[in-house]
Amino acid sequence: IFFYFQMKTYKNLVLIGTSHIAKQSVKEVEEIIHKIKPEIVALELDKNRFHALMNKERGRLKLSHVKIIGFKGYLFAKFGEFAERKLGSHVGVSPGTEMLKAAEVGKEIGSRIALIDQNIEITLKNFSKEITWKEKFRFFSDFLTGIFSKKNKLKINLNKVPDKNLIDELLKTVKKRYPNLHKVLVSDRNKFMAKKLFVLMKNHKNIIAVVGAGHEDEIIEEIKKIERAN
Question: Residue 153: what are its φ and ψ, rounded to 5°?
């Protein structure tokens, strides 16, 4: 069984949108890579995060990193690590397992592994520089309200990749309520990954890119912009 509803194809590129803690994503990635047998398996990771995943390193960020990535970036990264670990333990899947599976299967079939994401330290440094305290307090306020409010709770199955309509709605909300956060964590990284994928598409027959669900459409649009400019 293949779960194609989170898969996008553009020319010689296949984008698989995953949830980093969903069992479905691990199975989906394995099956699609085996079926397509791409020359390149591209991952939404940078060298540091890939190394940490491969070596099962946790909590890599220390207080000493504050001077590099800024205090706000450090807090956000720590919060993200905690949330992913908690959710992952709930469903029995470690965060990033689908990326490790993609790398493992890619190597088995002779694919080259490409890391296409922006350096995490640059992303967090930009986060510290561009995110406003107003957005930060709004984020934590919304988070706490969501935990303690009994109304309007979203029913999400953590074992599966969320429905595309739900992801689109969530991204629209994030962009509206936290525009700088969306720019740094989504739009800027999509542009970076699109540039990397554009080069790979020119030099290889077929590529599979494993990215977080919600990145697929914008990455394709950014690739099209690069093509028009060239």
Answer: -80, 130
User: 3-class secondary structure for 160-229?
Assistant: CCCCHHHHHHHHHHHHHHCHHHHHHHHHHHHHHHHHHHHHHHHHCCCEEEEEECCCHHHHHHHHHHHHHH
CA 215 to chain centre: 7
Nearest to 135 by CA among 69, 72, 74: 72
pTM: 0.80
| CB of 46 closer than 8 Å to CB of 120 | yes
Residue matched to tokens 């959710």: 87
The confidence score (pLDDT) of residue 139 equals 75
In whole angstroms, what is the distance from residue 4 CA to residue 201 CA?
Answer: 21
CA distance 68 to 64: 8
pLDDT range class, residue 86, cuts 50, 70, 90: low
CA 87/CA 158 separation, integer angstroms:
8
Say what angle helices 23-36 and 97-108 make with each other, to 10 degrees: 20
Q: CA-CA distance, 49 to 26, in Å (whole number)?
A: 18
